[in-house]
Specification:
Layout (H helix, E strand, L loop, with lengths): L22 E7 L6 H17 L8 E6 L6 H11 L3 E6 L5 H12 L5 E4 L11 H9 L4 E6 L7 H16 L8 E8 H7 L9 H4 L7 E6 L13 H15 L2 H29 L7 H34 L6 E5 L9
Parallel strand pairs: 1-2, 1-4, 2-3, 5-7
Antiparallel strand pairs: 3-8, 4-6, 5-6
The structure holds uridine-5'-diphosphate (UDP) and magnesium ion.
The site of uridine-5'-diphosphate (UDP) has 16 residues, from strand 1 and helix 3.
């Protein structure tokens, strides 16, 4: 967080002339058997249309990332890729989670593409926004964030928790973009830069804005899920939320120190009154004070240990330098001319 580059300096050479890009759509899929055929259809059609309109170059593809699905998703994906070379499939060796799945896809796609857009498999994010993403890329943006217009399609609970979460993140000093959920375009240059970040605790939404390339925002409408149900369980959501905070900010650690100081002052005050009482000979039983003090210190100590433990755990995981995902199979076919 602290060494964020000054973005003012990075918007100067936007004039650089860009070629029509080879675009890859990176689509993470975890148990998406109900929706995947439909999604492939819609995404494939959109790419073909963009190709006809001269907005993307030949060789653009949809790259699915199977994130260890336990249903028929992988089989369906292979069928789709067999039918049409426009579809490619990266299959991970297990369920690594949404963030790692899109990272795997982006890292694979950057070998072929000039620009990559990550989009969910459930068609919730309006695919028509691609035109604006591309326009912004052509005028020099290296990162384009898709930001949702509203949260109509979410329940009260998700809406409320999301808003509170973004507030908390900002309070803790992380400049995540509110209502941006990994629907995002990145140029190859930005992806190559992202490849240099080796952290295991990956929170792309927080990390990418700190990279400082020319960036832009595109607004889009969110629809209800095409089919199936959300793959973000409550615990997956909590993990993402916690990762977001602890991987982007050390402020909670500092807050412990501040709390410690406040308690030190408070207990100092209590200590003085107790001594004054003793000197004056008022040896009151003092049951309440004793109990309060030990309850408070106990509670605060435990919370603090918990927060420190969270960071120690993160450090432990980082020091292992484990790969963030492993690829099991990869399907990618050259498109031949007559298929166009
Ligand atoms: N996803 C994934 N791995 C997971 C969970 C989800 O790759 O462990 C994918 C999922 O298939 C979808 C995207 O991440 O393409 C977003 O998930 P979902 O739509 O279920 O989340 P929501 O929109 O409800 O937040
Ligand atoms: Mg969704």
């Amino acid at each position: 967080m602290e060494n964020r580059p000054d973005r003012e300096h990075n918007t100067t050479d936007r004039a650089e002339k860009r070629r029509i890009p080879i675009l890859y759509l990176v689509v993470p899929c975890y148990n998406e058997e109900e929706v995947i055929e439909k999604s492939a259809l819609v995404m494939g059609d959109k790419l073909k249309k963009l190709g006809r309109e001269g907005k993307i170059a030949a060789g653009s593809k949809v790259m699915f990332v199977n994130d260890g699905s336990r249903d028929r998703t992988l089989r369906l994906l292979h069928e789709i890729a067999d039918r049409d070379a426009m579809f490619s499939v990266v299959s991970l060796s297990g369920n690594y989670g949404h963030q790692s799945a899109i990272l795997a896809g982006m890292m694979m796609a950057r070998k072929y593409a000039d620009a990559v857009v990550t989009i969910d498999a459930d068609l919730q994010q309006d695919i028509e926004a691609l035109d604006q993403f591309l326009a912004s890329y052509m005028s020099g943006s290296d990162v384009v964030y898709g930001v949702r217009n509203d949260r109509h399609s979410d329940g009260i609970f998700k809406k409320g928790t999301a808003t509170a979460y973004y507030k908390l993140m900002h309070l803790l000093g992380s400049n995540v973009m509110a209502n941006h959920a990994d629907y995002r375009l990145m140029s190859r240059k930005a992806l190559d830069a992202l490849a240099e970040y080796k952290e295991t605790n990956l929170f792309l939404r927080g990390l990418i804005p700190t990279m400082g390339f020319p960036s832009d925002v595109v607004y889009f409408d969110v629809k209800a899920r095409e089919a199936g149900h959300s793959k973000y369980t409550f615990s997956k959501m909590m993990t993402l939320a916690l990762d977001g905070i602890t991987s982007m900010s050390v402020r909670p650690l500092r807050m412990i120190a501040v709390l410690g100081f406040i308690f030190f002052l408070f207990f100092g005050g209590v200590g003085v009154t107790v001594i004054v009482d003793w000197v004056q000979g008022n040896n009151v039983p003092g049951y309440t004070t004793t109990l309060l003090v030990s309850l408070l210190t106990g509670g605060v100590t435990l919370i603090s240990l918990g927060i420190i433990g969270e960071y120690v755990g993160k450090i432990y995981m980082e020091t292992k330098h484990r790969p963030r995902y492993l690829i099991d199979t990869f399907v990618w076919k050259e498109e031949n001319a007559e298929e166009k």
